[in-house]
Amino acid sequence: MITLDHFSLLEGRVREAAPALVLFDLDGTLINSEPLHIQAIVYTLTEFDQTVSLSDLIQLQAKGINEKMVGVNDSRVYEIIAEELGVTYQHSIDELIEQKNDFLKGEEVLALLKSAKCCAPELMNELRKLKDQGHRLGLVSASQREFVDHVVNSLGWQELFELVICREDTEFTKPNPAPYLKAFELTQSVAHEVLIFEDSDTGLKSALDSGAQVTKVSWY
């Protein structure tokens, strides 16, 4: 069970770093979204595209494919699965992503998204405390804007974050530092005065290469 103790790092690191801006990754950092994305990928490949079977995906998971896909954008996720299985999809990757985003906006997934397992209320309370204390907060994700906006709107985060950077906002995405550099530019922030919270190796490389202060988290 997740408790407030899991997030004691958050307030302590902010106090220690005294940043002008605090940035957060989304998937795996603010929300435990991996189960949601896995469900959506299974749907798009086994039901919508019908090129891959559920047993194929289970075998890939048993071989540790999830580790290759942590922190990776949607396009690359579908490419990895196709490469591992040696298949060609019936639909384009853009079409698969569109269907994945539609699935993620469904009522069943929305209920999971709002649950404590996916979005710990203790973490949200800590973020709101930081906001109330006058800290500038931002969200920097490698996910598509359609999904990120859905999460932000569904969870009532519109007033929490000063800016939201998504996959479409930069030419290059994580592990490239471009998304974080874009955030610095838009907020007129200096890299060494920014504190970033990330969970994946991909996100951590992006954050570290931006020149900011970085903290790795494993809340979920």
Number of helices: 11
Main sheet overview: 5 strands, parallel
What's the gyration radius in Å?
17 Å
The tally of domains stands at: 2
CATH superfamily of the largest domain: HAD superfamily/HAD-like
Q: Give the structural class.
A: alpha/beta
Strand elements, count: 5
Strand content: 5-15%
CATH architecture of the largest domain: 3-Layer(aba) Sandwich
Strand order of the largest sheet: 3-2-1-4-5
CATH class of the largest domain: Alpha Beta
Q: What's the overall geometry?
A: globular
H/E series: HEHHHHHHHEHEHEHE
What is the end-to-end distance?
10 Å
Protein topology:
Layout lengths: L7 H10 L3 E4 L9 H15 L5 H9 L2 H5 L4 H12 L7 H12 L2 H7 L7 H12 L4 E4 L4 H10 L8 E3 L12 H10 L6 E5 L2 H9 L3 E4 L4
Parallel strand pairs: 1-2, 1-4, 2-3, 4-5
Describe the overall structure.
- With 220 residues, the protein is of the alpha/beta class.
- The protein has two domains: 4-32 and 119-216, 3-Layer(aba) Sandwich (Rossmann fold); 34-111.
- 50% of the residues lie in helices and 9% in strands.
- It has helices spanning 8-17, 34-48, 54-62, 65-69, 74-85, 93-104, 107-113, 121-132, 145-154, 178-187, 201-209; strands at residues 21-24, 137-140, 163-165, 194-198, 213-216.
- It has a five-stranded parallel sheet with strand order 3-2-1-4-5, with helices on both faces.
- The longest helix has 15 residues, at 34-48.
- The chain is globular, with a radius of gyration of 17 Å.
- The mean pLDDT is 91.
What is the structure about, briefly put?
With 220 residues, this protein is α/β, with parallel strands linked by helices. The protein has eleven helices and five strands.
